[in-house]
Structures are given as C-alpha cells and as structure tokens.
Amino acid sequence: MVCLGNICRSPLAHGIMAHLTQTLPVEVDSAGTASYHVGNPPDPRSIAEAAKHGVDISNQKARQFTPNDFKAFDHIFVMDRQNLKHVLAQASSQQEMDKVQLLLGDTEVEDPYYGGEEGFAIVYNKIFAACTSIISAWEKA
Ligand code: 4NP
Fold first, then answer.
1. How confident is the model at residue 68 (pLDDT cuts 50, 70, 90)?
2. What are the residue ranges spanned by the domains of the chain?
3. Helix/strand/coil percent split, the chain, to 5
4. Which of 17, 36, 45, 80 would be a feasible disulfide site paired with 108, CB 3.0-4.6 Å?
5. Which atom of ligand 1 is nearest to the CA of 109?
6. Prediction pTM value
7. Within 13 Å of residue 110, how many CA atoms lie on the same side as its CB?
C-alpha cells in the first residue's frame, strides 16, 4: 500500500488489508514515495479512525518505497496518480509495472492531510470497500 508520506492513507490501507486477511496467507506492508516522515508513526487522525473500527495501526512506522518492493510483493496498490507515476518510475521491467494499480481502480484516494477529521472517515470507507472487493476477487480466482 503506497501513498506520499506513509502516515495518513497507506497506513490505513495497510491496517485494513492486514485485518481483513488475518486468516489468509497474505503479507501486507505500506510505504511512502517521499521520505519526509520516515520512522514516524501514522498521523493521529489515521490512528483514531482505524481504532474506531477495531483496527490498531499505532505500531506502524513510516518507510520509503524502494525498488526492492517490486521483488518483495506481488501487488502494489497506490492511492493516487502522483504515487502511481513515482512508483512506476522505479520499475525495471514490464512485469514490475504490471504489479502496480490504483487501489480504487479508476479513481484516487485523496490526500486528507490538510483537511479535517471527516476526510479520514471518508478515506477509511473508500479503502475498506476497495480491500473487501480485492479480497473477494482473489478468493474467486
Ligand atoms: P499521506 O498524506 O500521503 O496519505 O501519508 C500526507 C502526509 C504528509 C504530507 C503529505 C501527504 N506532507 O506533505 O508532509
């Protein structure tokens, strides 16, 4: 799960996907394309929104996306088109590029960082719906 800072959106996506795949052989992680927040915990608004739904993301620590993530993961879900561009720029083959997709498919998870708490609830709901439908597609495959 990849966003810009790895403190707002991708920690929620990481926590939600990990929560929903607890009984499946799936490894979930998250990263940011930027380095500003490396080592930091998620934004308190993301921690609070996740906690409302019984998902604990308080132990996560931000890290930066690296080209090695293409080797380590089968799927790379990005939150917006800027993330998509920055991640694709680090791919070294078509096979790596093919691992990358917008989490919402055709639209973006907008950055809630500069807005209010309500933005985090909207982000949570969009990410939850996307993760649910991705898992059900995997289960049918
Ligand atoms: P995120 O949100 O990409 O969802 O983690 C942001 C967090 C921090 C900044 C931008 C977006 N920032 O500019 O510091």
1. very high
2. 2-140
3. 45, 10, 50
4. 80
5. 4
6. 0.97
7. 8
